[in-house]
Design goal:
The protein is an alpha+beta fold. Helix content is 58%, strand content 11%. Strand 3 and strand 4 form a beta hairpin. The termini are far apart.
């Protein structure tokens, strides 16, 4: 009987840890959404891992270059140019006004208030690698992934449709 009680309490505590992690992350996700809404570059930068996102872009460029059905010399050139191209893309895309369309995809439109920390936490899912991710539905794929870095949950991966990131009209 005591063993059953201990196992139940242990399970409750472990499930609570996941909830605490999601709630903790939700505070920083909320701050990121506020930065996007307010077009606040400084607050936005504090909630993204620019290096990880740039590396993700570079990896995608290398993968596409490698898979391209072109001459090997062109593939090599494309792979060589992937790093500088990723830097230019990161400088262009990693801005709050570009992420506004992705936020709207999740329902965070300008005419609605941004939900609180608990509501955001319920939309996050803990992943096996210690990250949390935002999905469109409970069983859907991760579209935005966040990792804790020095006590701040930062956006480290954008796995959604690149069409969700729109450059503002200039």
């Amino acid at each position: 009987m005591r063993l059953a009680v201990v196992l139940i309490l242990t399970a409750a505590l472990l499930s609570g840890c996941a909830s605490v992690q999601r709630i903790d992350a939700a505070a920083d996700v909320h701050a990121l959404l506020i930065a996007i809404r307010d077009n606040d570059q400084q607050a936005f930068n504090a909630r993204i891992d620019r290096h990880a996102l740039r590396d993700q872009i570079e990896g995608q460029l290398v993968t596409r270059a490698h898979a391209a059905k072109v001459d090997d010399r062109l593939k090599g050139l494309a792979m060589l140019l992937a790093a500088p191209a990723a830097q230019v893309a990161a400088d262009t895309l990693l801005r709050p006004n570009v992420f506004k369309a992705a936020a709207e995809y999740y329902g965070y439109t300008p005419d609605k208030p941004i939900p609180g920390q608990l509501a955001i936490a319920s939309a996050l899912r803990q992943t096996a690698n210690g990250r949390v991710c935002a999905t469109r539905s409970k069983t859907g794929p991760c579209l935005l992934s966040f990792a804790s870095e020095d006590g701040i949950w930062k956006l480290v991966s954008f796995d959604g449709d690149p069409a969700q990131l729109r450059l503002p009209n200039l």
